[in-house]
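haha ok so turns out i had the wrong file open the whole time. this is the CORRECT one, sorry everyone. sequence first:
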Amino acid sequence: MTQDTPIPAWLAEAWADAPDVGSVVVDGCPIVTYRWGSRNDPPIVLLHGGAGHARWWSHIAPYLAKDHHVIAFDWSGHGDSGWRDADDYTREQWTRELFGVIDDADLNAKPLVFGHSMGGLNLITAAYTRGSELAGAVILDAAVRTPAQARDMRPGAVFRNPSTYPDAATAQARYRLVPPQPHGDPALMDYISHTSLREVDGGWTWKFDPGAFKVAKATPIHQQVGDLQCPSMLVRCEKSWVLDDASYATMLAMCDPSMRHLEIPYAHHHIMIDQPLATVDVLKTIAALWVRPA
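then structure:
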């Protein structure tokens, strides 16, 4: 991070609570994990979005960990986890990673799982195929589209040919949120861009594997989202480009009518960036009121 970037008190307090960092091998690939809080508290798992990494939650998780055992991890092809062959990046594979992390954590109860963006789409497959192993699934601003809509959107295309920069400072200066939205606190953006970089021959580039975005995922999540096998909720960010009014209406029509849903006012897609304290408040409230199955 840039040393002269001022850090607000709430952010400094969060970062002072450093996670326990570990890893678990799932189907031959090392998956890096982060844990906060007491192992005796009810468990929460946080899933990051596409091209992101678990440390996007590093300023959120410590506040949740005041009364929960919080786990986050890097999906394969993201962050500091290993990479797979491009054909092996599927929602079913990422589902196995989620449950590999859960099994390795030896939790005291079924976890409540929050999945943002791509993490929310992976969570749909997890809740559809193995929902009985979860206390609940909270989908954070993830848009389920019909196959035709998905083809037109060309999801992930922007990540398929990342640039290489001569030095880390140049790369950080070029860092942008996708989709575009207002940036958060400068210190937070500095941290996220810094932890998104890796050194390669010829300079610096982003940690995610472009191969993770080159394979069309055949998982029919538009058919799965209406039949999740655990209590579930959809959270929409009001100003989101991803889950706009039309997409929100389309997705609600796919969901079981009993699925709870709510909207966060004036929040953009990357809610933990532009509305971090509101994110803490929403997630803590949902977790506190969630009725966990036995």
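The radius of gyration is 18 Å.
again sry for the mixup
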